[in-house]
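User: I'm putting together notes for a lab meeting next week and I want to include a structural view of one of the chains we've been expressing. I don't have a solved structure, so I'd like a prediction I can at least talk through. The sequence is below, exactly as it appears in our construct file.
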Amino acid sequence: MTNILIFFLQESLNWTTKASSGTLVVVGIIAIIVQGGLIGPLVKQFGEMRLTLIGSGFILVACALLITAPKENATINIYSAVSFLAVGAGLITPTLRALISKKLDVDKQGSILSNLQGLQSLGGVLGIAMAGRVYDSFGPKSPFIAGSVILLFMIYLIAEGKNNNSFSNQNSKVS
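Assistant: Thanks for the context. Below is the predicted structure for the 175-residue chain, given as structure tokens.
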């Protein structure tokens, strides 16, 4: 979503490249804070499953703020949205990896997690291309709407897996 954000801000809100780039600085700073210092204590307090769902909620709020931002005086909406986006992404990435690693045999973790990294990179490339296609075909807000729908489906799958005890360590906490 951050890749298409600059185009969205420039086309929808007439922001300059300089004004738009400030949002990426905020995303970077928040990501450093969340993943560099907060994730450990948060996992201890809430567990990976809960943080994954909370992070997803943060990203949904970000999408809602972006697509409802008024054309005039949008700065608060946009910076709030990118803050929610950064916190959400900062929570989801490590917690999903932890949930997956807990489901794997110790001797297979390395190969499967490296494959996961490869798939994540492929998804990043394809996601950017697909967001661009959706953007060009349906307008500037459409990637955020489509991303929200995909995220809701992901939340459903995670919650369904949780309810079916697919994640046996759902409430485990790091000691």
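A couple of points you could mention at the meeting. Residues 43 and 173 are 6 Å apart (CA to CA). Helices lie at 2-13, 17-46, 48-67, 75-102, 109-138, 142-163.

User: Perfect, that's what I needed.
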